[in-house]
Amino acid sequence: MGSVFTLGIATTSSEQAGVLLDMGIAEIKRIEDLLSEFRPESETSLINGKAYHAPVSVSEECFSILKRSLDISRLTKGDFDITVGPLKKLYRFKNDQFAFPSSAAVQDALAKVGHQKVQLSDATQSIRFMAEGMQISFAAIGKGYAADRVKAFWKAAGVTAGYINASGDLCAFGHKPDGQPWTIGISHPDRPSETLFYLPLQDAAVATSGDYEQHFVHEGKRYSHNLDPHTGLPLSGIKSVSVFAPAAELADALATAVYVKGVDKGLHFINQLPHTHCIIIDADNGVHTSTQLNLSV
To answer: Distance (Å, rounded) from C-alpha 179 to C-alpha 175?
Structure first.
């Protein structure tokens, strides 16, 4: 998944802890094998290679993730979209000699993007692409799904407290051994080692979408590696979005969607969702929060 996972549980038995942590690691690896677009044998690779020519039948698990992904696309009016792969291939954000792709190249890629061009069949549990060259990627939802799966495994095994940290996307339940809630820190977008805020996280998840590591400055303007699936262009105006939600999968996807929506529309969108909150740091390092979120420095 291109991410470092850190797993922690609260238990009195080190032997039990070892077994449970190994279980979590194995589940993360299984999901990567299932969903990674970079694994030739994954269901994602199978879909990307064949779904334009004929419907591709997939496992129940993969089909469920596809359905939820398209549901979130509809909920966010396309701001979250698992079909943006053709656009990502146009950009190299770590290149010092960055150049925007041509308008023609962007338009060509956009013709291969759009959740509306994905057809799912419940009857055959299959997926079909309606445009040649389409590809899907679970990069903006897969880490959250893996975290939720590990949490579910542990709870079923009787674990009462733990966390799964996927490169800053954190899913936590129960309390720390001292009785205090697990705490998430929100980093400064320009100085990642500096923490701006600490927030308690109990039976909830947080995901951050930001340009901490992948951004570029072009003609004095900072652009993110996040792309607008409607225009095909890199986004600007926001440095970081952190979304708090009941499930890590949902937080992961919504953080991407809010980034695309921008500050005002993003806050308005989150304020309409139950048990969901967000923190947005704009291009000038201004901090914006949803209405029900209280920050402590």
So the answer is: 5
Tokens of 69: 């992904």
Average pLDDT, the chain: 93
Question: What six digits make up the tokens of 107?
Answer: 């338009």
Query: Phi and psi for 132 in degrees, rounded to 5?
Result: -70, 140
- Tell me 208's DSSP state: E
Residues 6+ apart with CB under 8 A from 149: 27, 31
| Amino acid residing at 208 | T
Higher pLDDT, 3 or 79: 79
Q: How many CB atoms lie within 10 A of CB 213?
A: 10
**Strand partners for 182:** 201
Residue 169: what pLDDT? Answer: 85
The answer to pTM > 0.90 is yes
Q: Which residues contact 75 (CB under 8 A, 6 or more apart)?
A: none
Give the 3-state secondary structure percentages of the chain, helix then strand then coil, rounded to 5.
35, 25, 40
Judged by DSSP in three states, 127 sits in: strand
164 bridge partner residues: 7, 171
Structure confidence at residue 220 as a pLDDT band (50, 70, 90): confident
* pLDDT (tens digit per residue) in 38-87: 999 999 999 999 999 999 999 999 999 999 999 999 999 999 999 999 99
Q: For residues 40 and 188, is the Cβ–Cβ distance under 8 A?
A: no
Q: Which two tokens stand for residue 164?
A: 């799964």
279 touches 241 (CB < 8 A): yes
Tokens of 278: 């967000």
Which positions ≥6 away from 166 have C-beta within 8 Å?
1, 3, 4, 5, 143, 144, 146, 147, 248
Check residue 217 and give its pLDDT. 75
